[in-house]
Amino acid sequence: MRSYLFVPADSERKLARGSESGADALILDLEDSVAADRKAGARDTALAYLKQQGGTRGQQLVVRVNALDTGLTDADLDAVVAGRPDAILLPKAEGGAAVTHLDAKLTAREAMHGLPEGSIKILALATETASSLFLCGTYKNASPRLTGITWGAEDLSAELGAETNRDELGRFTSPYWLARNLSLAAAAAARVQAIDTVYADFRNMDGLRAEAIEARRDGFAAKMAIHPAQVAIINEVFTPAPEEIAKAQAVVAAFAENPSAGVVAIGGVMYDRPHLTRAQRLLARIKPV
Predict the structure, then answer these.
(1) Which domains does the chain have, with CATH numbers?
(2) What confidence score (pLDDT) does residue 248 get?
(3) Are 61 and 85 in contact (CB under 8 A)?
């Protein structure tokens, strides 16, 4: 997975555009992009879309529900689990306990709808509250459903009372670099995909590209988008180049030929076990999901 595109779940038009965007996954949003008086209708529209796509989905379909402390999560799940989304994105997640809580809710509803237990996965939005920053190390072993961790800066900046979360150059200020890096470490510790946050200035493609390249460099495997126009750049950046694939294949092959070696030489360059791990992860990204 390289790209996750947010689409308001109350807009059939935007859902249709999202399906044509080239995004690897659509996030059908029941949370921030849907007004309170439209949430019931958004649930119906999301379910209809999930059922319409059925077993012919060309994209992963993820539903962002409302946070656990809103009192709306159960109604969201009651509505959409019957459509068998590929995953639920949990906003304002506060550590592994929140993921375990959501796991239990999904298990009950899967049973009610005759779905295999564990068929619906979980993505956690891990840095939207101040408390959540202190809990980023608790996701490991929280649930076998957990397949990805992402982060967000907008809700966090509101809670911190910040005037802005980016500087005059468009780069995140220090509190949000902390949140970003904690989410990256949380994903690594939990052995799940690290997904970078959205780039809100959707007309600034140069800024988007620079931020996506920076994220990939540091270990993120994908990025979220808020506009279909952002998807092509995100997919390009997070798709390994042919020369990168060839190099990774060479490293993996060299260690396969020398399974007891701690270091191998390829073209006059020494590669150790951490290089093997990185090569394996890169090759895993090009396999069908």
Answers:
(1) 3-237 (3.20.20.60), 242-285 (no CATH)
(2) 86
(3) yes
